Amino acid sequence: MVHADAVIRVGAYRRAVDGAGHDLVERPVVMARVAGGAEDPGRHREFEGHDAGQREDGYPMRTRELGHGPILSHHVHPATRRAEGCDGTVIDMTKMRAIIAERAGGPEVLELGEVERPTPGLAEILVRVHAAGINPTDWKSRSGAGAVGRTFPLILGYDVAGVVEQVGHGVTLYRPGDEVLGMPLFPKLPGAYADYVVAPARHFVPKPASLSFEEAAGLPLAALTAWQGLVDTAKLKAGQRVLVHAAAGGVGHLAVQIAKSLGAYVIGTASAAKHAFVRGLGADEVIDYHEADFVDVLRDQPVDVVFDPIAGDYSSRSLTVLKDGGVLVSILPVDDAAMKQAEARGISTGFTIVEPDRLALTAIVDLVEQGRLRVEIDSVFPLQDAAGAHRRGETNRTVGKIVLRVVEH
């Protein structure tokens, strides 16, 4: 047991566990300081004899990297929650890094700061974020133009990929050390642009070993948006024709693959430079929106479903290529005129908002593990350059997903 005023300094070796790359603290060298600041040799010997490779509850003991060298993640006294890195830097374990937007504005309002580290409650888990996905809803919220009203200051970010650090009471799905991904709490903000997030355990699923943390972070929101739109809303069936707008984008490239997995005939819109990419995803046809109007191309060959992540006039124009009784899935609000036009022809339409959905996310991960779904990463930015990631996203010239790397591997 560490005294309330102790500071722990740990030097550690690492070894792999079951070949899975889990880190254990092996042969720690610990110096406990007494109140007067002197090192206590007796306490030193006590820690040397402790088996740091295993916690008292049987879980592996893990090191945590906070930019100050490895520290012992557990057995830090709750009254202080302080530890000292190998370089002598004292780490306050009640704090964490986060990207904070103090006010609405451009990317420049995103600044690296320090906030209180959360703790898990009933049925919640604390996740050490390794990577966070960037989505258009992030920069819309940052600018103050999001569909959901926000109160500043904000910590943005919905997509999380990381490692379970701690579990709350009642959690049986996960143990510390498990790798997970999820889109927790949406439309509330979990604050993924940070070192840690806390959220309900069932808002996450296990991360496939085949995915990097960056790929995993690019998956949840975009893939759930596509899945819920095509599977739950449109009830897309094998043999049906579906038009996917912005087919090379973050949501669109996943929608193409999910539609193909359901046996649909997929038509995508994309610029000519991205046609090879979209065809590589499985699209049967690709329309260059710079050279041809999709309305003219498809007028005589209408589709059963349109998946529209763009909205605006795309919604009303898309109605002209839909069969009577078809489905227009829009992830942004559809204007009243288009709604009335759709109703007159028996076309189902409306604003579809994504929701946390463990069953759907599990099905999505199954497609990944079967090799039928992949996440294309456009670019990866370090956490401290979240502003650069937003600038990249706002060009609307990306292919696939933008991701923040929170932990360097």
Radius of gyration: 24 Å
Q: CATH H level of the largest domain: which superfamily?
A: Medium-chain alcohol dehydrogenases, catalytic domain
Number of DSSP-assigned strands: 21
Largest sheet: 7 strands, mixed
Task: Please work out how many helical segments DSSP would assign.
Answer: 11
Oligomer: single chain
SS-based structural class? alpha/beta
Give the low-confidence spans: 1-79
Assign the CATH class of the largest domain: Alpha Beta
Task: Indicate the CATH architecture of the largest domain.
Answer: Alpha-Beta Complex
Instruction: Estimate percent helicity.
Output: 10-25%
Question: How is the CATH topology of the largest domain named?
Answer: Quinone Oxidoreductase, Chain A, domain 1
3D shape: globular
- Beta-strand level of the residues, as a percent range? 25-35%
